[in-house]
Structures are given as C-alpha cells and as structure tokens.
Amino acid sequence: xxxxxxxxxxxxxxxxxxxxxxxxxxxxxxxxxxxxxxxxxxxxxxxxxxxxxxxxxxxxxxxxxxxxxxxxxxxxxxxxxxxxxxxxxxxxxxxxxxxxxxxxxxxxxxxxxxxxxxxxxxxxxxxxxxxxxxxxxxxxxxxxxxxxxxxxxxxxxxxxxxxxxxxxxxxxxxxxxxxxxxxxxxxxxxxxxxxxxxxxxxxxxxxxxxxxxxxxxxxxxxxxxxxxxxxxxxxxxxxxxxxxxxxxxxxxxxxxxxxxxxxxxxxxxxxxxxxxxxxxxxxxxxxxxxxxxxxxxxxxxxxxxxxxxxxxxxxxxxxxxxxxxxxxxxxxxxxxxxxxxxxxxxxxxxxxxxxxxxxxxxxxxxxxxxxxxxxxxxxxxxxxxxxxxxxxxxxxxxxxxxxxxxxxxxxxx
Amino acid sequence: xxxxxxxxxxxxxxxxxxxxxxxxxxxxxxxxxxxxxxxxxxxxxxxxxxxxxxxxxxxxxxxxxxxxxxxxxxxxxxxxxxxxxx
Lengths: 413, 86
What we know:
heterodimer; A: Peroxisomal Thiolase, Chain A, domain 1; 10-stranded mixed beta sheet; 3-stranded mixed beta sheet; 33% helix; 21% strand; B: 86 residues; mainly alpha; Non-ribosomal Peptide Synthetase Peptidyl Carrier Protein, Chain A; 4 helices
C-alpha cells in the first residue's frame, strides 16, 4: 500500500469562552485567564458555565440566526473565520469538492427541551410545536447550516463521538482527503450544550458537575479538591488540505496531521479505562512513526472529575513516564468542558507553541492531587521550552470512546 | 379592530420572523412573497404566531389567503372580530 498523502492545517477559526480568535484565546491561555460565568439554567438555577460572546451577525443574517440553531451559528462563525484565516480565494474554489465534518457530543437536546417548555405554556398541545423542530434537530444540522451559509455543495455531516468528537471531526476530514473524496475540508468540533438543562442535570446527578464560589475556579483538573465538570459551549473549525494542494497555492501551513487513533473501552458507559487509553495513545504514536519521547506537548482531556483525571494520568504515565522533554497541560481549567468542541479547541490553543515555544499551563491548581502529579505537568504558569515540534491531543468520551490526535510542526521532508 | 389593525398585526409578526427585511414600504396589494424574502417556512411561522399570540387558527386550505397584506386583512378580520365578540 502506497503512502497516503500528507494532510496539513492551513486555516483555523474558533470561539471559546475566553476568546473569539486564536490570538485572543492564546493570549489568555498564556496569561492564565479563565472565563467562566454563572448562567441561569432552566429548572436548576445558577450554574457555572463557559459562554461564548462572538458576534453571530458577522457572518449570518438575523433571520438565519432565528431559524437556525446555536450550534449552527457557532459552526458558521468558526468556518467563516477559518476560511478567512486560510487565505483561500473562495470564489475560485470548487465548492463541490469541499467537505464539512463537525464533531458533536450531542445535538437536538436544546431545541427539544425548548419546544417541550414552549408547548407546556399551551397545555401541551402539540399544534404549538414549531415546524422548525426537525431541521433544527437533525444530527447533521450544524454542518448543514455551514454549507447553506457558504454555498458548499460537497458532503457534510456531523460525527457523534461524545467528548472525543473534536478530534474525531479532524480525523474524519483527514481520511476523506486521503481518500480523495474532497479537496478541501472544514473540520473540527462544536458545542451548544450549555443551552440544555439535561446535560447539567445529568452530570449533577452523576456527582460530576463542578462548582466553586468563584466560577473561574470551578474547573480545576488535577487539583486535589476538584469536584467535577464545568459545561461550556464553543467551537473550533480547521481548514485541512492535502500538502501538495496547500503548497501549490502557496498556503501558510500551520501544522501537519501526523497520526491518530480512535478506539473503544468496551467496558463501562461512563468510567474511563486507562488500559484502552494507553493503547489509543500508543497506536497514534505508532501511526505517526513517533516515539513517546518525541512528543513535546500532551494536551490532556482531564475534565476535573474525581476518577477520570486519575485514569488519564495512569494512561499517560504508562506512555510518558521516561520523557523529560514531554510537557503536559490542560485547557479545561480555563474554559470548562466544551464537549464536542473540546478536542478541537484544546488543540488550537496549543498550536502557537510551534512558533513561540511556550507551553500554556493547566491552572486552578491549589493543591496538586498526588495521583495526578505527572512529570512534565505545567502547573499554573506557562513554561518556555527549547522547542515544540509535536503535540498529542487527547479526547475521551462516554461509552468508552478514546481519541488521540498527533500534529507536528510542518517541515519539508 | 380594523383592516389596518390586521395589517399591522401581520407586519409585526413578519418583523419578528424576517428581521432583516425593510417593512417600511410594503405594498398591501402585492403578494408578500414578491416583495419580501419569505419562504414556506416563514408563512408557517405567520400561521403559528397568529395561533400563539392571537388565538387565530388558519386551516391549511386557507394559507393562500395570507398572500398579501390586503388578503390577510380581508380573511383575518372576521376571525379577529369573532374572537373579540366572545
């Protein structure tokens, strides 16, 4: 089997609770600035959450915003910003050869909850149920809204992969480019989850919803006193191309996709399995033709649950215990858990390390949990390192889905 | 309640469902679709808002009556008056 074509990232658009561009997001990660606020959640009162404040009207008409979904708006904003970042002459791009592949943790809960509430105001008479419900809740909605907004006529769909979805969207796009199904892909992950009370109530009753008197300290992975997940919205969408195409058009190459793995625990619906996580990371390394000591940054998935953080640390010790040049961080400590967007956003915040050789920290650690005291963990303060050439991005999710994605600094090989 | 009141009710609904449209010069005798960017889902929104906000039912067979502001006023006025009379 011949070598598949190399795949590169040539553009990126994002919205995170603490930034609506990579520049702003990165600056806040290096400055240690979290941005978690309290919002009113239906039936549950005030809860800490990560809220994005991008201007949806930058790329959408008000009617599009009204008729579509929050997930659609996030997707359109990120895709449009990614397009601008990629420097493509959009008029000349063959839109039939463009694909949109977006990872989602869930979709449709927001609209369904809203409609159940809506008809409850009318005696639960279903004649008051909106005709917009189905186009808003079909699983391809966020990706489909992108195609309608941008006139893309190639394939579009979402990849349901729980909280591994951000990586899964990127992996799907890389595979489709390698197969020649498309010539250009918009891919990543998005989430509107803060607008559904069900996800808050589910985590609360699972004993996994984070809280703190200071919302900005509510998400504290690896801290001994962590008490759960802070739910956030957000999105990160990348422009991916085959290397040859990117070089031919003189594109700025942000990074190269080096390898990946998605596997399954096949053990428990919610409890992670460090053995399978270890295998996932090892398989990604093998596919990238890299050794553990070749990885400079590990962007962890850790969500600040009591057990999950420890399980990931077990997996990382299994692989990286003898790697003094491997630095480990976590982004959820700044922005909470952006669900379907988490993996894509967490990778994005680390990409500038290829240029500046700084590793952003994991923050909110007052007392490091000894079981999470990984060698190389960058705690509370950013760290300047000799060189960053590779990033391994972990994203795991319920039903035992694990993903590890490795990107590397582009070098002419 | 007058026909002009009805036209304003419909315009107010359209202002909500099509917020990008300039409604300052809508011609009452011309089909709404011919002068505004409205699709079939938008007309269903008009029907839904009449139901929700005003308790007015428009059966599917009568959707054609909502074509223009004039036809809306003609068709809806008796319904609004009947509602007021209750």
